[in-house]
């Protein structure tokens, strides 16, 4: 995601997905004009495909990630562990979240967060497409 300032129009929903290294990732942006208002992420992690031996290994490897998201205003994060896959979900409400604080989280990519007041949908989509994500129809 990259930051910018623009708004206007009604809210839209744009989804992108990528399957890589045993993980299927879906990112949904909710935006008004170019301004992202909310972002939802769901990662389905196949233990075998991602090199995790079993549920216990996944819990010990992925579990510490949950702590870094706790107490961040506007961010909800959880991981549900099944027998062969784990499902990680995260939602960021940009009307509440502090961009600088969110930018420090693992997996976040922002530019110029010191002066940013919003996340640009256009720039976020460009970054995702460069990373191999495809738009979900």
From TrEMBL:
Q: Name one Pfam family in it.
A: DUF1307
Read off the SUPFAM superfamilies from this record.
YehR-like
Gene3D superfamilies the record matches: YehR-like
Task: Show the InterPro entries listed in the entry.
Answer: DUF1307, YehR-like_sf
Query: What is the protein name given in its UniProt record?
Result: DUF1307 domain-containing protein
